[in-house]
Amino acid sequence: MPKYTKWVLFFMAVFLLFVAINIQTGWLFVLDFTLLSFLFTAWIFPKIMTYGEIRGEIYAQPVFEEENLDIMARFKNLSFFNKYFLFIEFEFFKISLFLPSLPKKKTVELSCKAKAAKRGVYSSPELTLKAVGPAGLFEHKKKLSCKGRIVVYPSLNPFPLPAQSSSPVPLLSDKGVFSGKGDGEEFAGIRDYTPGDSLRSVHWPSSAKTGKLMIRETMKIHPFLYTLYLDQNQRRTGYSFEISVKQAAYAIHEISKTGNWVQIFQKGKTELKSLQGNLELLAGIQADQAFPLNEQIKLYLPFIQVKKDLIFFTDVPERFISESWVFIEELLEMEIRIMVVFSGENRTEASRLLSSWLQLKGIFTAFGA
To answer: How buried is residue 267: exposed, middle or buried, by Cβ count under 10 Å (0-12/13-18/19+)?
Structure first.
């Protein structure tokens, strides 16, 4: 119903009241009272329905951008009267839920699907509670803070990634017995027993065949640890930065599948996380640093030098082909493996020159779309 309808009805009621007073006609008073009562009810009803405390909780499994998000919402009416015909608006996901009734001191659960269009970590999301009066003449809204969180991971932007498999290293001192987070074992061969070997490593079929104790030799699996450096310079807010985030998400996803580890460098520190933990970190990451990536790397160069597998995510402005990248020579001298991933598919002369220069240094480069 058009918004001006309520004003038309209001001025009509005022006019009828004026006429009724002047001509003293009883049925006009009744008609005018009925119209005014209807307008008052339509105005006060949404205010009453949104009055009082309503608590909300919201739950959803993490998903990637552009995937469907299954949302479970729970609302509890803590006021002293029932509420009817409410709408719950999820502004971020552009959806609205209809709540026919919400009894006092009761909890109601609703479920819905939404399109996860943009990455982010949304803790205690703010919803809008709306009630509409009869005939839709009036409505009243108020903000409703909810407990819970919704996590939308960045989508994956593929690029050539020469990720390495976990590296088997001969196990010498432990003699077949070891343990460690993220480590595994691989069969290396059979050898004779020597004093000090653990009986747990005895290869009994070979021992029975040869008539003497034989030891099962193993190799310890050492995962590679990749450290990702994402250019979070403030000037990158927008498309270029989002591409880098999606590239980093792809790298984390693919490297984790090979059994290797990934950590993200952020604000001067790194922390080893699971695949889900790294993706959640990327879901909420922002371009909020004062300095570009090359300046950040120079600042933390002593810390970076202890890392062995580095992946830089940035764009390709011309100033990157400058002496400010001489620190790469220092990293290469430390036998550090480096990869540079550029956002954007446009190949400018500057990007081609930089890519060629890096490849001459033995650094793998890739471009994302």
So the answer is: exposed
> Taking Cα atoms as reference points, which of 324, 297, 323, 322 lies closest to residue 310?
297
Give phi and psi for 251, each to the nearest 5.
-60, -45
Lowest mean pLDDT among 56-70, 305-319, 322-336, 349-363: 322-336
Domain residue ranges in the chain: 50-153, 167-222, 225-367
Task: Identify any residues that bridge with 231 across adjacent strands, giving them in sequence order.
Answer: none
Residue 258: which residues within 8 A CB-CB, separation 6 or more? 163, 164, 165, 166
Rounded CA-CA distance 308/310 in Å is 6
The pTM of this model reads 0.72
* Phi and psi at residue 138, to the nearest 5°: -130, 155
Averaged pLDDT score across all residues of the chain: 81
The pairing of strands 83-90 and 214-222 is unpaired
Q: What is the mean pLDDT of residues 311-333?
A: 71
Q: Do the Cβ atoms of 365 and 340 come closer than 8 Å?
A: yes
Q: Which of 40, 52, 41 is nearest to 129 (CA)?
A: 52
> Coil, strand or helix: which one is 134?
helix
Amino acid at position 99, single letter: L
Q: Does domain 225-367 have CATH number 3.40.1160.10?
A: no
* CATH class of segment(s) 50-153: mainly beta
